[in-house]
Amino acid sequence: MEQQGADAAAARRMATLASHLRPDPASSYPQMEEVSLLRGSICRAKGAAPGFKVAILGAAGGIGQPLALLMKMNPLVSVLHLYDVVNAPGVTADISHMNTGAVVRGFLGQPQLENALTGMDLVIIPAGVPRKPGMTRDDLFNINAGIVRTLCEGIAKCCPKAIVNVISNPVNSTVPIAAEVFKKAGTYDPKRLLGVTTLDVVRANTFVGEVLGLDPREVNVPVIGGHAGVTILPLLSQVNPACSLTSEEVNHLTSRIQNGGTEVVEAKAGAGSATLSMAYAAAKFADACLRGLRGDAGIVECSYVASQVTELPFFASKVRLGRSGVEEILPLGPLNEFERAGLEKAKKELAESIQKGVSFINK
């Protein structure tokens, strides 16, 4: 009798182990045949701390893969869903071998989108095609706009209360697209829809740190406006720690921050865009959102959100994050003459990008 019990326990352990290799064909890998006992549904990592359920849509892409790696390392994540239209099984298998707490599940193709999204607390969207040399963010519009619309329709249906982080470019237009999709579905909550502009802040902190000879981790530069070209406006008069920059330094830094993406695209010479630094920035912002959901106080980040700090319906500025997403949109603070002029340029281009996104859904 004891031997039978031991054999049954061993069989269960083997089934659990094997289910990593052959998960439930109904959920993750439809091309695999059903195998008795070897079901992903029985596979649960033990010892994982209670946390949040996070989905990455576009997890097999240039941003998605390193982002999946970083989110698997985040102790606040208990379940990590990796969705893509190609290569999701391989990325899932690879990431799932990491001995961190989050349980990883993969989802391949449009028929599995709803399963990927059901019950999620945070959805991160890096899906879309990357920029190539000579490409502007607007060149990406028609392809990525359609992708974002489809994914947001799934979110509206399956996890309407989730916090949504939009990375897919052009962010200045894709966030308004997401908003219009949610409005049509009757699920729109502006506090829960956030465009990820953290890479602009990360670059600003790095470049200013280089100029001042400071550790970039100790530098904080607010970046407002949007997430493309002249709509990216670093407020160098508000750098923390306080510093005095010459007009030449301000011009150089502003230009480099605004053109950071192009700098990477050109350096990669056709081999990709800013995927690694974007994944880092996205993971940093996602962690801030999760800490806000947990109830931590004083979580302030820059993000492109529905806003009333200007006459535009969407604008990037400092926001305070909490349990419901954006708890407060902070004022821009004092701007100098150079920044005020930059703001007017940014608003003009932003208005066009926002309208382009709205029109895409309402055409």
Which percent range describes the beta-strand content?
Answer: 15-25%
Largest sheet, order of strands side by side?
A: 3-2-1-4-5-6
Rounded to an integer in angstroms, the radius of gyration calculated over CA atoms is: 22 Å
Overall pLDDT level: 90
- The CATH topology label of the largest domain is Rossmann fold
Tally of structural domains: 2
Would you give an account of this structure?
The structure is a single chain. With 363 residues, the protein is an alpha/beta fold. It folds into 2 domains: 19-33 and 43-195, Rossmann fold; 198-362, L-2-Hydroxyisocaproate Dehydrogenase, Chain A, domain 2 (Alpha-Beta Complex), CATH 3.90.110.10. 43% of the residues lie in helices and 16% in strands. It has 11 helices and 11 strands. The strands form 3 sheets. It has a 6-stranded parallel β-sheet with strand order 3-2-1-4-5-6, sandwiched between helices. The protein has a 3-stranded antiparallel β-sheet with strand order 9-10-11. Strands 7-8 form a two-stranded antiparallel ribbon. A hairpin with a 2-residue loop joins β10 and β11. The longest helix is centred in the C-terminal third of the chain and has 26 residues, at 337-362. It is found in: Peroxisome. One of its GO terms (molecular function) is L-malate dehydrogenase (NAD+) activity. Residues 53-195 form the Lactate/malate dehydrogenase N-terminal domain. NAD(+) binds at residues 58-64, 84, 144, 167-169, 278.
